[in-house]
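User: quick one, fold this
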Amino acid sequence: MLSSVTRVVGRLLPSATAISASRAMATKTIPLSDDFLFRQLFDRESCTYTYLLADLGSKQAVLIDPVLELAERDAQLISQLGLTLKYAMNTHMHADHVTGSGKLKELLPGCRSLISKASGAQADVHVADSELVEFGRHKLECRATPGHTNGCLTYVCKEQGMAFTGDTLLIRGCGRTDFQEGSPTALFESVHTKIFSLPDEFKLYPAHDYKGLTETTVGEEKKFNARLTKPLKEFVDIMDNLNLPYPKLIDKAVPANRVCGLQF
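Assistant:
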């Protein structure tokens, strides 16, 4: 029987089994269906990702975490693609997310804003855990993932094998828990029960990235996330003792231009 490593000329080399497992994690994905459109958009100022999803049959679309300053960009793209924006939806409400929902409603009449009921934010549509957001024949399952804020949601598109985690889970990291409804215990439980419970090959798309990465997978984060691979007590200690170079932010104390690099 092969061990997980093979010794060759005084050094350790991965066995064929280990190499095969590693390649499977890196390459196994769920292909998008032919009638599903997906675009990932980026705001350099706030390091925020915005996601455009659409059903190509009905042309109905949703936009996740739109940024106010780029609402015109998003509206133009949606119009160019011949889509109808059904919902401008947010993963959560926070001062670093100056949402473009209101502006998009002006630019694209018929669009409705959507956010978690637990967020306490104003919107046309409020959703809760396990509810579905439908656009054309496609749907997103709302999973309540509090911890960064009480109203954080992760939107899961099971057919396409993807989830949009907001600030709850970042690539190799997670959102801060030291201000405005933050709770490291709640965040840990949210990730492990609502996100890490998804199949390993599911792609994860966060609301921010500060390292030049565009996506990750459940399997990668379960293996490589430096915070969330720790036991609960150790994770809580890490989150309670982060040596952040910025003061704690409370409610709307974030500067208008938002500092790119904050680990929200």
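User: anything notable?
Assistant: Confidence is low (pLDDT under 50) at residues 1-24, 245-264.
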